[in-house]
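User: tokens in, sequence out, please.
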């Protein structure tokens, strides 16, 4: 669904509004900002909701919002009523769904899976999610090329199926929020906890700034339409390539989970992410671009695996939803703000210059964070690294 929104948005900007490539790329960046605003405003609320209410019900509510977005987009596409303001609104509602879904789903995992196999379970969960990330964009591009509204009908059906799947999760006991503090204070407590744990703060902000600078996905519609000339079908596979690389990495991690030197491996993964971004920006060949995007995705998966395992294993259950919300804000915010940054940079440097600039920035951020947060490179295992540092 997100792939098609981006392609339709760029196509409407170019065809119906007569914008130049740079102007339309800039508008794509604003589309990312429209998804980020709900994340910025609602993250503390979403984390508190995940800790206060049944996480299964919260996840179903979020998926229902996304299904409504997909259904609406299918109808307006069918009746040819697309416009940039409408796509901005739909992108914002999609952001609302994501901000509530992520902390509810991620904080639910330790309630179901024993702690001793949690890193492997996270790898399996990522493998399932990334497999959808491979099939979704490719299938979306093919369905859109065959019949534009069909991509949204399929997305609506699968989001409703996701709601039904969540009902199959049996009720589970979980900790309740300690104390009788005001809900607003409880939201602040989640932010304070994340801020005070240096390892956690360093890992989350590294991901935030590296992906913010190195995210090339916002400009994929530009590459598909005007640089690589592969159209909507090619865009689907370009969007699927990072997920394909991430899936392969997740399979490897589920079979051979990391046990030693996890921090330094996370840092090197971000460096590889930056190098692959630079290579993609300069690549004139479709097949090479796909390979570099796959490498980019596998490096990002390794970084996310390390960070997610540390967060889940070292956060109390009554605080887990709020910490997951902060982590989700960093992940999603880096994507959406990265799209905004890419749009600005593309308006100034052109799309190729913007992608290369972002890759270089991701590498520089890694070096700076390794110096600012030595706890990252010194982390040997998934033991409570950041509690040791703060004690």
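Assistant: Sequence out:
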């Amino acid at each position: 669904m997100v792939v098609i929104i981006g392609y339709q948005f760029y196509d409407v900007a170019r065809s119906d509004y007569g914008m130049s490539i740079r102007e339309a790329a800039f508008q794509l960046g604003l589309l990312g900002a429209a998804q980020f605003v709900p994340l910025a405003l609602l993250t503390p609320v979403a984390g508190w909701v995940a800790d206060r209410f049944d996480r299964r019900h919260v996840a179903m509510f979020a998926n229902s919002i996304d299904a409504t977005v997909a259904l609406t987009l299918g109808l307006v596409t069918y009746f040819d009523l697309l416009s940039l303001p409408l796509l901005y609104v739909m992108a914002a509602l999609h952001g609302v769904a994501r901000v509530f879904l992520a902390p509810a789903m991620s904080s639910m995992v330790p309630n179901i899976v024993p702690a001793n196999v949690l890193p492997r379970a996270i790898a399996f969960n990522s493998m399932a999610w990334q497999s959808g990330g491979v099939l979704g964009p490719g299938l979306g591009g093919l369905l859109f090329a065959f019949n534009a509204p069909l991509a949204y009908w399929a997305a609506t059906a699968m989001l409703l199926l996701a709601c039904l799947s969540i009902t199959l999760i049996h009720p589970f006991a979980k900790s309740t929020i300690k104390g009788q503090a005001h809900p607003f204070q409880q939201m602040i407590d989640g932010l304070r906890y994340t801020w005070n744990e240096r390892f956690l703060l360093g890992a989350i902000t590294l991901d935030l700034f590296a992906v913010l600078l190195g995210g090339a996905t916002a400009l994929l519609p530009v590459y598909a339409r005007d640089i690589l000339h592969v159209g909507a079908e090619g865009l689907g596979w370009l969007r699927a390539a990072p997920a394909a690389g991430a899936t392969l990495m997740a399979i490897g991690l589920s079979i051979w989970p990391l046990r030693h030197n996890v921090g330094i491996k996370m840092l090197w993964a971000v460096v590889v992410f930056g190098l692959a971004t630079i290579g993609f920006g300069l690549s004139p060949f479709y097949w090479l671009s796909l390979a570099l995007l796959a490498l980019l995705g596998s490096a990002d998966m390794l970084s996310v695996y390390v960070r997610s395992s540390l967060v889940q294993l070292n956060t109390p259950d009554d605080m887990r939803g709020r910490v997951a919300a902060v982590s989700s804000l960093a992940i999603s915010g880096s994507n959406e703000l990265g799209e905004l940054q890419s749009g600005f940079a593309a308006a100034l440097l052109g799309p190729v210059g913007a992608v290369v600039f972002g890759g270089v920035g991701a590498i520089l951020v890694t070096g700076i964070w390794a110096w600012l947060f030595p706890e990252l490179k010194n982390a040997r295992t998934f033991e409570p690294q950041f509690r040791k540092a703060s004690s």
